[in-house]
Amino acid sequence: MGILIALIPALGWGLQPLILGKLGGKTSNEVLGTGIGALVVGLLIKIFFSPAAISWPIFLVSMASGAFWILGQSGQYRSLEIMGVSKTMPITTGLQLVGTSLISVLAFGEWPGVTNKIFGAVAIILLIIGASMTSFSESKGGNNQLKQGISILALTSFGYWIYSVIPKAIDASGLAIFFPQMLGIFAGAVVYTLIKEPKAFTEKKSWQTSIVGVIFSIGALAYIFSAEENGVATAYIITQLNVIVATLGSIVFLKEKKTPKELRLTLAGLALIVGGSIITVFL
Q1: CA nearest 72: which of 127, 27, 121, 124?
Q2: In contact, 68 and 162? CB cutoff 8 Å
Q3: 207 vs 146, higher pLDDT
Q4: Pick from 37, 150, 152, 253: most CB atoms within 10 A?
């Protein structure tokens, strides 16, 4: 059951960039829409499930983690515009995996014992190699876009790391911290939009993309329970199977072009990602 729960965000988060690709819009529209959708689901969970009360320090820490997530997500959205889904998702997957796994192992003592750490390291290496293979480009212009996109992701991915380890770092149930996290995502989205492009508040695209926030928040709720049951490192790595949904979906549904060599490397890279993720399940 724990693994099935972990697969919910993998599917939902994989569909996010595909839906955004169909809807269109600017980064500010996508960030604001995500915040709106996340707040709606957070309020519904708060109203209908009545989670246990938490202290103000835990509430504020949980809210801050949501705001940090927006930092990471804004970088991902911008990168999607620059180099497309099939390149962005594998790269952001690799960056998130390295940071989150290292924090989980070093700070929380997950993957205890030498053998587990060795297999965990092998899994991460496979995942990183796989992600690198899927982002290969034969185009010179594509390589320039790749450099720009990687720079953005490298500067913003730590927002994901902070968000992902909060369920393990604080003494509170998943339901209890869910609403403040979604509130933090909304607040972060509002601040981002005010700074970057205030007119996005009145644009139709911002409200249309709120569906992405709904999908994300459902996956986020599942991730919280998965982290409690499977451990942060394993739970987070399994969620990164979203890269398969997003990458293959971008080729099939968004018609992103790849040369025969790029396609072969993409498929081989995805196979390595699956293999690395499966290894972590048994640690």
Answers
A1: 27
A2: yes
A3: 207
A4: 37
HEC assignment per residue over the chain: CHHHHHHHHHHHHHHHHHHHHHHCCCHHHHHHHHHHHHHHHHHHHHHHHCCCCCCHHHHHHHHHHHHHHHHHHHHHHHHHHHHCHHHHHHHHHHHHHHHHHHHHHHHHCCCCCHHHHHHHHHHHHHHHHHHHHHCCCCCHHHHHHHHHHHHHHHHHCHHHHHHHHHHHHCCCCHHHHHHHHHHHHHHHHHHHHHHHCHHHHHCHHHHHCHHHHHHHHHHHHHHHHHHHHHCHHHHHHHHCCHHHHHHHHHHHCCCCCCCHHHHHHHHHHHHHHHHHHHHHHCC
Which stretch of 44-48, 227-231, 240-244, 257-261 has the lowest confidence by average pLDDT?
227-231
| Residue 116 in tokens | 């587990």
CA dist., res. 33 & res. 40, Å (int) = 11
Largest Cα separation within the chain, whole Å, is 55
Task: Say if residue 208's pLDDT is above 80.
Answer: yes
pLDDT at 281: 66
pLDDT tens, position by position, 87-130: 898 888 878 877 887 887 887 787 888 888 888 889 888 888 98
Q: How far apart are CA 188 and CA 213, in angstroms?
A: 13
- Which residue did the predictor score with more confidence, 113 or 19? 19
